[in-house]
Every structure is written in structure tokens, then in C-alpha cells.
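Inputs:
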Amino acid sequence: MNGLLAILARDLRLASRRPTEALMPVVFFVVAASLFPFGVGPEPAMLKQIAPGIVWVCALLSSMLSLGSMYAGDHADGSLEQMLISGISAVEIAAAKSLAHWFMSGLPLIVVSPLLGLLFDMAPDSIGIMMLGLIIGTPVLSLLGSMGSALTLGLRNNAILILLIVLPLCIPVLIFGAGAVSAYEVGLAPDGHFYLLGALLLLSALGAPVATAAALRISV
Amino acid sequence: MNNLPRLFTFAAPSRFYRLAGWTIPGFYGIAILSALASLYMGFFVAPVDATQGNSYRIIFIHVPAAWMSMVLYMAMAFWAAIGWAFNARMAFMLARALAPTGAAFTFLALWTGAFWGKPTWGAWWVWDARLTSELILLFLYLGYMALVEAIDDTRRADQAGALLAVVGAINVPIIYFSVRWWNTLHQGASISMTAAPKMASTMLMSMLLMTIACWSYAFAVVFVRARAIVLERERSTEWVQALLGNSVKENV
């Protein structure tokens, strides 16, 4: 547990030294989401209807974009190897890295998402539902993405490769995250979606760090 | 006859190479014969469907292709897991050889599905649960193939691919059910994919023959591909050198 906290604190401190870089996923998230009205037209009714989907797809893409650098820097300067032979379990390293990734790419998205909700004229309670879904769902993206990042460590074109590997695995999160808002807006209870998102979170929190640890041992 | 240890002897690439070489012509033969028989039955013997007319006849290739797409993914994940657990080279090579055939059958299932969908539903594609999960299965195959192709180091490629195949296999049911629930939530009862309530026995017969053809074809091409991978990876061993030397002499 100490190892986990140490790596988490280290990664967050490293990110805080380069604030512009750390903010890039959020900027991408906002820019990408605001492109949609140009594509589908400015009708408020239609935008309101597709808003949860847009926000979720953009959140998914923006958290995927920063995956390439999750292990790459530590791999390049050799500190990843040192961590792996330091006696801290690889599962713990994987969990710490996923958590750090979520703090840097997931949490800022959740904070900014109400702004996008307002841009798309969503009702305040729909925005709340969307944020709750993002809070449960985005850690799953970081956990699954961590595995993809570890598998593709040091490969050519690894940014595209990560997307190709991880995106299909993320589809259930997208379905239930965006589905919760849609269900609420047509007057159904969104609870079921949250339970399923929670189940996905539990499953990936238990399984993904183990898979990532195996991937790190393969790749390093 | 206790032949369990004998099965393990084919884990040696050289023995597998020879065994596969003997069986490939047989599998091709079975594939061609049963495909011809199935096509004959499907086109000339099976009756016209009461509601769909002749367009339903694509079922004879569509359903076996869809079955194969799922079976081959499971086979790929199985061999990848075996290879990973026992560090068996041949199992890794089989997993890699299975992927392109599986992807091809997945694509075939989607493509024939589109051709079937157009006359019966009036659309090439609908976001039905089965179609969508088949599409995601294709993405999983492509991800696996892209990953193993991108890694130059064979050992790492095999193990990384194995991990991805196993994770994918765990995810397949999750994806399937989430797509199903998503579909029932979003889409009203516009289309029901329920098959004809009772299938004529000639139709069933034709479909089963095509299934046999697909299995044999899959065995044949996977073995051909696995043999090529064996030769490539074992090129520095004595038996491959001897094999190549012999064939060079024969050619001269």
C-alpha cells in the first residue's frame, strides 16, 4: 500500500511540474465535444438529445489519448524497471499508475463536464446523472487503458494501437454511462445503469491491475 | 491404447509440421465436397421460404460463418492461454494462425448479413444486438492481429497477444450482454431476428453440410498458415534446413 501511495504521489508531483501537459486531455475534451454542433447542426433539440453520447465518447477518446505516455516516460529512463525490481508488487504499480492516470485525465473531465452539459442545453439533473456516471465509469477507462498501454510499451505507432486494443473493451462503459442519462431523460430510473457501471468498475479494479502487471512483465 | 502422451508429441513443431502436412489435403477435400453438396442442396433441393422467398438462402453460408467466427475466437484464446501457461511454442503459433481465419469468417458473417438484411429488412445494417457484437468481435480480432504484428520480438508478441486474447475472451460475454441491453433500451420492437419457427430438414441439412465445410476449410488454412509460421520461426533448426536442402536437391 505504501508503494502504491508513493508511486501515486510521485506521478502527481511529476504532472504538477508540467501543468500545461496535464491540462491537455481536458482541453481536447472540450474542443472535440464542441466540434459536434458544427457537424450535426445547431438545433438545440437534437443537440440536447445526443449530448450524453457526445460527452461520453469525447471523455473516452480524451482519456485514451494520454495513455501512450502512461508508462512510456518511465520505461525510457529506466525507472519502470527499477520500480519492478524494487520489491513493490507489479500489481500495486499497475494500480498506482491507473489511479494516477485517473486523477490526471478522468477527474478533470468530470469537473469540466457540467460546462459541456450547459453548452448542449442539458437539464441540471441530467448533468448530475451524467457526472455520477462519469465518476463511476472513467476509472474503468483508466484501468483498461493501463493494460493497453503496458502491452504496447515501446512499439511503433503505439498511440493508434492502444486505441484499437482498448476501445472495443470500453464499449460496455460507454453504453451504461450514456444510457443512464438517456434512461433518466425518458423518465426511467437510471439506477440499473449505475449498478452495472459499478459492477464493471469492481471487475476491472480486481482484474485489470493483474492483467497490467502481467503485461508489464511481458513488455519490460 | 493410451494415446494421451502421443498427442503431446505433436507439440513439437517438427512433428506438427508433418502431421499437418498429411491432413491438409484431406481437410481441403472434405471442405470442397461438403461445400458443393451444401450449395446443391441449398439452391436446388431446399424449398422456397414462405415469407422471405429466395433471399433466405444466404443463411446457408451466413450462419456457419457466424458460428465459426465465435468458435475460432475461443480456439484462439484457448491456444494462447495454453501457450502462455505451458510456454508451448506450437500453441502460440496456432493462436496466431487462427486469428486471420477467424477475422475472415467474422467479416463474411457481417457481409452476408448485410446482403440478407437489405431484401428482408430494407437496410444493409441495423444496430441489432447480434450484428453489433459481431462487429465488436471483428474489432477484437483486428486488435489482436495488429498487436502481434507490431511487436518484432516473437516471444513478447506471443505473450502479449495471449494476454489480449484471454482478456478479450473474458470480455466477449460482457460486451454481448451490454449490447443486448443497450439495444432493448434504445430500439423499439422494430425488427425481430427470430428465425423461421420450423426449418425444413433439407434446409437444416444444407446448413450442417456448410458447417462441416467451414470447419474443414478452417482446419486446412490454419494448418497451412501454422506450417508457414513453423518454417519461419524454426528456420535455423536442423530439421528445417534438412527439409529445405532436400527440396532444393529435388528441384535441381
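The first helix of chain A runs from residue 2 to 17. Flag for discussion at group meeting.
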